[in-house]
Amino acid sequence: MPVYTYICEDCGEKFDLLIGMTSEKVELKCSKCGSKKIKKTFSSFSVKSSSSSGPSCPTGACNL
Questions:
Q1: What is the CATH number of the domain that holds 22?
Q2: What is residue 19's predicted lDDT score, i.e. its pLDDT?
Q3: CB neighbours (10 Å) of residue 58?
Q4: How many Å from the N-terminal Cα to the C-terminal Cα in the chain?
Q5: pLDDT, tens digit, for every residue of 1-59?
Q6: Fewest C-beta in 10 Å: which of 1, 30, 54, 63?
Q7: CB of 42 within 8 A of CB of 4?
Q8: Quick check: is 26 in a domain?
């Protein structure tokens, strides 16, 4: 199931929601204040590669 990050437009709370792939509609609301005025934002993610060729860069900020 995908995890989405939201920000509440009323209180500014940033929170993640696990959204299921079912046919039922889930009411999305702020986990802090209960407001329905929330917007989806970009989330960070990481990808693990099984390739071991070349040096690794643990911070993700290395120049290639």
A1: 2.20.28.10
A2: 75
A3: 6
A4: 33
A5: 677 899 999 999 999 887 777 656 778 899 899 999 999 987 666 666 665 555 566 66
A6: 63
A7: no
A8: yes
Per-residue pLDDT, 24 = 67
Q: Is residue 54 part of a domain?
A: no
Range of the domain at 29: 3-41
Residue listed under structure tokens 């005025």:
37
- Give the C-alpha separation, 24 to 8, whole Å: 23
Read off the pTM: 0.56
CA distance 30 to 4: 13
| Amino acid type, 46 | S
**Cβ–Cβ under 8 Å, residues 16 and 41:** no
